[in-house]
Amino acid sequence: MKFISIVNQKGGTGKTTTAISLGSVLAQKGKKVLLIDLDPQGNLSYSLGQDEFEYSIGDVLMGDATVKDSILSIEEEGFDMIPSSIDLANVEITLAQVKNRETQLKDALKNLRGYDYVLIDCPPSFSVLAINSLTLSSEVLIPMQMTALSLQGLELIYTTVERVKEALNPKLNILGILPVMIDKRRKLSSEVKAYIEENFDIHLFETGIRNNVKAAEAPSFGQSVIYYAPNSNSAQDYQAFANEFLSIVK
User: How far apart are CA 194 and CA 55, in angstroms?
Assistant: First the structure.
């Protein structure tokens, strides 16, 4: 079972869309997939039409529910998920004050079984919650726009992952950068890619996710773009990315 943190400390980078779309394609390929919404904003939960549920990841972290209690089956997409709510922000404040705060998620999920991949949609900051996810995970996936501003954030991501690897989780590795919201008419995208390849020891996925309005529309219908618009550029790109992902992550 592989735990994969999907991170970017900047909001609006396609992080949630990537988690849902990758999960959907992996499920289509027969993989058992669990998505965890670890963001107090609950974008992943909302995007899958889940706004009413009994238990959330916050309840699991506080010991008020078991992992089994909190899992929802998203039948259309073929995967399971653990939702989040705004209460997770209060849970995070509590976690910051407890002993071994960085391992609370790892401890809470220690009895989880039966999945090939657990994809964790992290909050857009390196908060206690995000550090918990990195402490648990074996891999980090970074959806990233190919812009100059994104390069500033990449340095922070790289440094944070290295610190967590050294202090808390020696098995942690950066799986790679997934270029998202690609506009092939812009020369800057290729320049940013070249800069990353020259200055960072991070794999850059060959597949890029093109800009497409269908990906932005899909959450309003509680669906992944894979099911909402299977013939769209975004859906086709995520299909290709999943193949590339599986060639690396066994």
Answer: 45
List the one residue out of 5, 21, 34 whose CA is nearest residue 180.
21
- CATH number of the domain within which 224 lies: 3.40.50.300
Helix (H) or strand (E) holding 87: none
Six-digit token string for 87 = 């209460």
Pairing relationship of beta strands 117-121 and 173-180 according to DSSP bridges: unpaired
Give the amino acid at 111. N
| CB of 238 closer than 8 Å to CB of 226 | yes
Tell how far CA 145 is from the center of its chain. 15
Judge whether 39 and 81 are in contact, CB under 8 Å. Answer: no
pLDDT at 230 over 90: yes
- Total domains in the chain come to 1
Counted residue by residue, the chain has a size of 250
Give the sheet arrangement for strand 173-180, strand by strand: 72-74, 79-82, 33-37, 117-121, 2-6, 139-145, 173-180
The position carrying tokens 């970074």 is 142
For 38-73, write each residue's pLDDT tens digit. Answer: 999 999 999 999 988 999 999 999 999 999 999 999
Q: Is the pTM of this model over 0.90?
A: yes
* 164-198: pLDDT as tens digits: 999 999 999 999 999 998 876 666 678 888 899 99
- Domain extent for 21: 2-248
